[in-house]
Q: What sequence folds into this?
C-alpha cells in the first residue's frame, strides 16, 4: 500500500453520507493519513446541504485498532494527540447526526470516535478494550469524550485493567446506544437513519448542540492538559519500550 491509496471512502445516497474506513493493513489504525482523510470526509458532509445524516463504518470487520503504534513509537505525539482532540470535537459539533456502525472490534483510540458519535449501533459479538495502561500509556485524549459518557465505575474498571469487554457491557455503561444480533445490524442502522430523516435539519442541528453541550465543555476544559499528558507518555522510554515489544510480538 502506498500513501496515495485512499483510506477513507465517501458516498452519498438519498440524504445519507456514508464514510467508510478502509485501511486493512493496520486494521484502521489512526494513522496521520486516515485521520486527515476522515477529517476531510466529515467536513465535506457538513458542508453538503443535501446530506442530512452521516453513517460512519468500516469496510472490513475491525472498526479501529487504535493509534498507529508504528508512527507513535517513532516520534512525538503532540500533533497526533491534538488531531484526535479535533476529530472528537468535529464529530460532536457536526451539524448532522453521526451514526456509527460497529461490526467488529474497537480498541484504544478508536473508542474516542465511538464516544463522540451521536448514535452507535453494534453487533452483539463486538468487543472493546482500552489497552493503553498495558503499554505504559493512559487513555488521555479520548477520556475527553469517554469520561462524560461512561459511569464512573465503568471508567475505572476499563481504563485501569485494559481488559476486553463485550457489547452488552458497552451498552450498559453508556458507550454504545444498543447492541443487536450481527445479522440484524444493517437493518438496525437503516431503521435509525430512517427515523432521523423524519426530523427537520434545523431540529437535528440545534438538538445536537443541546445534547453535546456538557461533553464539549468537558473537552474544552481538559483538552490542553490531556494532549500534554498523551505526548509525555508516548515519548517516555517506558511506553516506547512497551510499544516496540508489542509490535515485535505482533
A:
Amino acid at each position: 500500500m502506498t500513501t496515495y491509496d485512499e483510506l477513507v471512502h465517501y458516498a452519498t445516497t438519498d440524504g445519507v453520507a456514508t464514510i467508510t474506513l478502509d485501511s486493512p493493513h493496520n486494521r484502521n489504525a489512526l494513522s496521520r493519513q486516515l485521520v486527515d482523510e476522515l477529517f476531510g470526509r466529515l467536513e465535506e458532509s457538513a458542508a453538503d446541504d443535501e446530506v442530512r445524516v452521516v453513517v460512519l463504518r468500516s469496510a472490513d470487520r475491525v472498526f479501529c485498532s487504535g493509534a498507529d503504534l508504528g508512527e507513535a513509537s517513532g516520534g512525538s505525539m503532540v500533533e497526533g494527540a491534538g488531531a484526535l482532540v479535533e476529530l472528537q470535537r468535529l464529530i460532536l459539533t457536526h451539524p448532522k447526526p453521526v451514526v456509527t456502525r460497529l461490526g467488529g472490534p474497537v480498541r484504544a483510540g478508536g473508542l474516542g470516535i465511538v464516544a463522540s458519535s451521536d448514535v452507535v449501533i453494534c453487533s452483539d459479538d463486538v468487543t472493546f478494550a482500552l489497552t493503553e495502561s498495558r503499554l505504559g500509556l493512559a487513555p488521555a485524549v479520548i477520556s475527553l469524550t469517554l469520561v462524560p459518557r461512561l459511569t464512573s465505575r465503568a471508567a475505572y474498571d476499563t481504563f485501569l485493567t485494559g481488559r476486553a469487554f463485550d457489547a452488552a457491557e458497552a451498552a450498559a455503561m453508556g458507550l454504545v446506544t444498543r447492541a443487536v444480533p450481527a445479522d440484524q445490524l444493517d437493518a438496525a442502522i437503516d431503521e435509525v437513519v430512517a427515523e432521523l430523516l423524519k426530523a427537520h435539519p434545523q431540529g437535528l442541528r440545534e438538538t445536537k448542540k443541546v445534547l453535546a453541550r456538557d461533553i464539549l465543555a468537558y473537552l474544552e476544559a481538559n483538552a490542553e492538559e490531556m494532549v500534554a499528558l498523551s505526548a509525555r507518555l508516548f515519548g517516555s522510554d517506558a511506553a516506547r519500550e512497551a510499544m516496540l515489544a508489542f509490535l515485535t510480538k505482533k
In short: Residues 76 and 146 are 24 Å apart (CA to CA). The chain has one domain: 8-183.
